[in-house]
Amino acid sequence: MRVAGVLLVVVAAAAALPYDPVVRKLDDGERFQYIEAGDGTLHLSDTWLRASDVAEPRYDPERQNVYHLFTRQNPTVSQPLLMGSEGLLGITNYNPARRTVILLHGWLDSATADFNTVLVPAFLAAEDVNVIVVDWSAGAGSINYIAAVANTVPSGESVARFITWLNGATGAVPRMYHIVGHSLGGHQAGIIGRNLGGQVAYITALDPASPGWIFNDDKFRSNDGAYTEVIHTNAGVLGYLSTLGHADFYPNGGINMPGCNSQECDHARSYYYLAESLTSGGFTGRRCASYVTAMTGNCFLLGNLRMGGLVPKTGSSGIFYLETNAQPPFSRG
């Protein structure tokens, strides 16, 4: 009799729980999927958006995005930039005569991500540039992955408005920009370029995310910039499988990077390859007929193209395969 009473209490409690309907499903895959966070760990994420997720405090990128400026004068300690504050801008080391690099992290990440700690010094070593690290962790930090996917779009639109303000205040122009994003940030890089009229000189998507983007109209597009490049290192798993840019590179077939023993390591290799390409070049891809042949390495068409680097290869396009070493230097020349 006592057991029955306990069961009755449990049933009554369950019946009293509030109804939490699903308002959106991510693609057609399994509801619970392992997705990589910015620190390289895999999280089992609910890819269905529930009503309670929508009810959470709304992400406001105009107020919550943070912009960190690094230059050769301040290579390790950032200076803050605030949209609308020309007074603050005037006391920083920002120089509109230099090229400007915009860096965009991925899911559950922040300004201190490995992505930034690898690429900031690499860009500054390669050229005297302004590097602006965008911390959009207020939007990317939701443990519900589908909410972070949804936040990618307004964040990109807000960053585009920030760049428009910066250009208006300093006389800088879109052809002086290189926008680089990893994972969710890869798609956000395209969204920014799109909102700047496709005039940004150089946009690089580093293993742009696959979950939530296969049928997403806001995903990276080739015409988001004057020259767009994609580096695929975990294609079809954490990273996007097929081509997205003017030039798409599939190192080692786009998956199973030498020296890696996990999907998250593959996913991260994209920014290590870009960093090395900035300072030493060396990554040369062979032209492929399709991404399928790129993933198998059966690429024998005429015409090679360097992967990454400082200078946009404007006018170049195609699909390319190359091989890397298991440890630095990754380039085989």
Give an overview in words.
With 333 residues, the protein is of the alpha/beta class. The protein has helices spanning 2-16, 51-54, 61-64, 86-90, 114-126, 137-140, 145-170, 184-195, 263-280, 291-296; strands at residues 22-25, 32-36, 42-46, 48-50, 66-71, 74-81, 100-104, 130-135, 177-182, 202-206, 228-231, 247-251, 284-288, 301-306, 318-322. It has a single domain (57-322), classed as Rossmann fold (3-Layer(aba) Sandwich). Helix content is 32%, strand content 23%. It has an eleven-stranded mixed sheet with strand order 6-5-8-7-9-10-11-12-15-13-14, with helices on both faces. Helix 5 (114-126) runs parallel beside helix 9 and helix 7 (145-170) crosses helix 8 (184-195). The longest helix has 26 residues, at 145-170.
Q: What is the helical fraction, as a range of percent?
A: 25-40%
CATH class: Alpha Beta
SS-based structural class?
A: alpha/beta
**Shape by Cα distribution:** globular
How is the quaternary structure best described?
A: single chain
The helix/strand series, from N terminus to C terminus, equals HEEEEHHEEHEHEHHEHEEEHEHEE
Low-pLDDT segments: 1-17
Largest sheet, in brief, is:
11 strands, mixed
